[in-house]
């Protein structure tokens, strides 16, 4: 076998999840390469667009231990409260950081700002080669290494290949891995909204008969909007004048933030569930959206991917074994499977429960929100779940550096 370069770990995809894994392993002594298809500053970079990402408190702790939270914090807005309601029905659930005895329930940062911080950290890392723009043309699994051929004709080998190349993962397709897929027939519209009243750190999730609306607190009295509609309905909203768009949003959301004053650039994302049949293969692991792409209804996709990162990094630094050792990858898979299955199931149930116009179900939703609100243990359970703190925590999430 002729090779140009040999690595301990090659990460395909330098988006939010792949870049985070490389940074988590900066002191591991592993020789790492990140292969990324799109140049970091390009406007075409799909991972780092203008959508607001709600980072759970558990994710903040992982970034703190990785040493990049101070840089991320400069671009983040704390979530002090979460308000969940269902349009046309009584009943709300309110979560608060004070009740959870935490400084914040989470943070909101644009994917673009996160990308700038992650890319700056990657370029300062000395155990890392960033190969960009490049993508993988073919791969072969051998007993001791995986061999990759890139579209720039380079040939590389690695003991472990991590696919972090997003929902349309090339690695998953090259491996011919099957996946559970569900087209929700829904589309998310995102935009930044300037509101009349200050958000005071409050995040809103409002379920409506035309789909859920999330408004997340951001700087300069703006909120980051994720408005899910039935596919096809997004066209009129994307083409509507600013005045018409804000009127329709106001009608669905109400006046909890006063009048909506301005809307920034609107983007849209068709929504699908995808879960790869196998996230671990011989010397290969799929993480982040390459392994599981979720509906953004609960803002859990990246948080789940970052927990993949923290667990995989934990397993990799905890051993003297070869980084692609089958036992080690098995341990990783056992650790992660339950969290992944639980979050995927909970997200799908939420979509089913709240995207249904059956009036009886509407009353049940209202009652459920009220009951949770009235029961502190139920609220605590929900808050712990949404913050990613309800299961075995990897060292990075426990503030133990790797
Ligand atoms: C509207 C919306 C709102 C969301 N809000 C939240 C939220 O509030 N909280 C949350 O936790 N999650 C949220 N998510 C989910 C979150 O955006 C994803 O989970 C996250 O982007 C996954 O990151 P990733 O790095 O796995 O994949 P991606 O972000 O898709 O990155 C993949 C990377 O791989 C690169 N790549 C692709 N193919 C190749 C190849 N062949 N070779 C090399 N490189 C390649 C791409 O250029 C990219 O850089 C939201 C998603 C949407 C759509």
Tell me about this structure.
The protein is α+β, with helices and mostly antiparallel strands and 402 residues long. The protein has a domain at 5-59 and 107-180 and 274-355 and 390-398: FAD/NAD(P)-binding domain, CATH 3.50.50.60. Helix content is 33%, strand content 29%. It has 11 helices and 20 strands. The strands form 3 sheets. Strands 5, 6, 12, 13, 14, 15, 16, 17 and 20 form a 9-stranded mixed β-sheet that branches. Strands 1, 2, 8, 9, 10, 11, 18 and 19 form an 8-stranded mixed β-sheet that branches. A 3-stranded antiparallel β-sheet has the order 3-7-4. A hairpin with a 2-residue loop joins strand 18 and strand 19. It is globular and about 60 Å long. The relative contact order is 0.18. Bound molecules: flavin-adenine dinucleotide (FAD). Flavin-adenine dinucleotide (FAD) binds at residues 12-18, 35-38, 45-47, 51, 53-54, 135-136, 164-167, 170, 188, 190, 226, 269, 288-289, 296, 299-303, 305. Flavin-adenine dinucleotide binds next to helix 1, strand 3, strand 12 and helix 8.
